[in-house]
């Protein structure tokens, strides 16, 4: 009976943390899906161009994503060790890094928008549509970087419900303006791409403002960064290296994922119906973001936060059980979702695809989800748990090897050389996911079986605490304190 009660309590904890994150991810994905749908009114070339531009936007924000998740791992462990001062210091360092990386990403994306899109499509109309959308969405990179940092901090602090607010606000503003402005302005539909880009910029800013209100209750605020001065920035900078050490492998993992998608766009362009295939791939990615990636991200981020806090409290065996439980629950859930999506593949394709050929390709890609989504859910949740424990190098190598070094050459071989076209693409994607899943199982077993895990973890976390010497905000006033090691343990 105690074991049943324990499992039941764990499932309740999973639901409490996963549902709000799932809603947040769904809102984020819905913004992109609406943009792709509206771009479809301008034709398949515009839809393909927007799809490529969307991937470029993800790429431009990739380092900020890694920074946010790396800092979140540190904050979760500090929270588990009940060290609020360290958690707040890392949070402010994360926000400062988000501002710097977001600004850099916005500038670079704007300057190289046209050149970046032209690498992945030779169609001038797709290039033009993608360049317009990408360059006008570039300024939102700053707000987006800040918002993902803010929400990572909230997740790590266990404020899962509050994570929904900024994405709810951003989605409400962005989607409503995207639907209203083209019909409100004279000849607005001609400027659909420009208007949906403007809507995303305004939505991202609104999301940041709403999240700032929530974070103030945690004594964490963007406004505090303006008060700390040069000395305070210097103290925060000491944590940059610690955050980057964890966050960089995460960013490189995301880069491998996006690099794989870029390569797939290039391979699809070589097919007889290149534009139709690229448009279908764009629809598939957006549907995957909304229907599959949304709950998977929820499980993965929940695993990172929960396992991070358990390891911070030196509860290694409990962390191991939660890792396996979350991984299997997510895989089972996504198996059910995949079957439902496959049954509705025809209707979904008819709604989003423009030409009959695109509809056929979209249906085939969606139907293949039955095999892919459970695997994707299992290994991303398992890697999320390892990320929460500060173990990021090997997951990065597994994803890079499976999704890029294995998938891309195999897809090219099957689709182009063997003339299997979209069937070859589907087979390559499925095999790559299976390979990464097997790697995830092996890595989880090795990590929790290692007797050195707790010892090394304790040493690493004690070093972080001992070196903190950081910035702490209390009641709106800043103070600098040398935070001594209090015997807290964690990875």
Question: Could you walk me through the main structural features you see in this protein, from its secondary elements to its overall organization?
Answer:
Helix content is 82%, strand content 2%. A two-stranded antiparallel sheet has the order 1-2. The model is unreliable at 454-491 (pLDDT under 50). The two termini are 31 Å apart. The protein is an all-alpha fold and 491 residues long. It contains 18 helices and 2 strands. The chain is globular. It has helices spanning 2-39, 44-60, 62-80, 84-111, 113-118, 124-137, 140-156, 164-184, 192-215, 229-269, 274-312, 316-343, 345-352, 356-367, 369-388, 393-417, 422-449, 452-467; strands spanning 471-474, 477-480.
Beta-strand content bin: under 5%
Instruction: Return the domain count.
Output: 1
Fraction of residues in helix: over 70%
Main sheet strand line-up: 1-2
Q: What overall form do the CA principal axes indicate?
A: globular
Distance separating the two termini: 31 Å
Structural class: mainly alpha
Low-confidence stretches: 454-491
Order of helices and strands: HHHHHHHHHHHHHHHHHHEE
Helix and strand arrangement:
Elements: H1 2-39, H2 44-60, H3 62-80, H4 84-111, H5 113-118, H6 124-137, H7 140-156, H8 164-184, H9 192-215, H10 229-269, H11 274-312, H12 316-343, H13 345-352, H14 356-367, H15 369-388, H16 393-417, H17 422-449, H18 452-467, E1 471-474, E2 477-480
Antiparallel strand pairs: 1-2
Helix pairs in contact: 1-2, 1-8, 1-9, 1-11, 2-6, 2-10, 2-11, 3-4, 3-7, 3-10, 3-11, 4-7, 4-10, 6-9, 7-9, 8-9, 10-16, 11-12, 11-14, 11-15, 12-15, 13-14, 15-17, 16-17
């Amino acid at each position: 009976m105690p074991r049943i009660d324990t499992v039941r309590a764990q499932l309740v904890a999973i639901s409490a943390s996963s549902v709000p994150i799932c809603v947040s991810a769904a809102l984020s994905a819905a913004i992109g899906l609406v943009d792709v749908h509206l771009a479809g009114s301008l034709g398949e070339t515009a839809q393909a161009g927007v799809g490529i531009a969307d991937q470029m936007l993800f790429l431009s924000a990739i380092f900020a994503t890694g920074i946010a998740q790396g800092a979140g791992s540190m904050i979760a462990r500090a929270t588990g060790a009940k060290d609020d001062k360290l958690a707040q210091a890392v949070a402010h360092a994360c926000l400062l890094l988000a501002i710097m990386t977001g600004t850099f990403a916005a500038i670079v994306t704007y300057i190289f928008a046209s050149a970046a899109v032209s690498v992945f499509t030779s169609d001038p109309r797709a290039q033009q549509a993608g360049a317009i959308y990408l360059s006008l969405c570039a300024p939102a990179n700053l707000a987006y970087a800040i918002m993902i940092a803010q929400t990572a901090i909230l997740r790590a602090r266990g404020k899962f419900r509050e994570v929904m607010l900024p994405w709810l606000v951003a989605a409400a503003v962005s989607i409503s303006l995207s639907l209203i402005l083209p019909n409100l302005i004279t000849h607005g539909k001609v400027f659909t791409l420009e208007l949906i880009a403007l809507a995303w910029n305004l939505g991202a800013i609104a999301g940041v403002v709403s999240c700032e209100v929530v974070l103030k209750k945690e004594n964490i605020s963007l406004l505090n960064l303006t008060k700390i001065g040069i000395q305070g920035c210097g103290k925060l900078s000491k944590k940059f290296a610690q955050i980057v050490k964890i966050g960089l492998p995460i960013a490189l993992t995301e880069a491998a994922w996006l690099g794989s998608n870029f390569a797939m766009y290039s391979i699809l362009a070589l097919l007889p119906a290149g534009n139709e295939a690229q448009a279908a791939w764009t629809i598939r990615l957006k549907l995957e973001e909304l229907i599959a990636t949304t709950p998977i991200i929820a499980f993965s981020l929940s695993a990172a936060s929960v396992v991070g806090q358990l390891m911070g409290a030196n509860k290694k065996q409990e962390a191991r059980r939660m890792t396996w439980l979350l991984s299997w629950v997510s895989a089972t859930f996504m198996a059910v979702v995949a079957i439902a999506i496959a049954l509705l593949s025809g209707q979904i394709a008819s709604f989003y695809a423009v030409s009959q050929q695109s509809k056929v390709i979209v249906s085939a890609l969606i139907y293949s989800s039955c095999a892919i989504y459970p695997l994707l859910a299992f290994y991303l949740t398992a890697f999320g748990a390892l990320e929460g424990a500060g173990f990021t190098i090997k997951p990065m190598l597994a994803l890079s090897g499976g999704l890029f070094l294995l998938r891309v050459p195999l897809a090219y071989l099957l689709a182009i050389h063997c003339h299997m076209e979209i069937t070859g693409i589907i087979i390559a994607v499925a095999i790559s996911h299976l390979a990464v899943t097997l790697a995830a199982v092996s890595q989880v077993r090795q990590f929790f079986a290692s007797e050195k895990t707790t010892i090394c973890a304790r040493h690493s976390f004690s070093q972080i605490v001992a070196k903190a010497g950081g910035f702490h905000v209390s009641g709106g006033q800043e103070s600098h304190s040398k935070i001594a090691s209090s015997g807290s343990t964690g990875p």
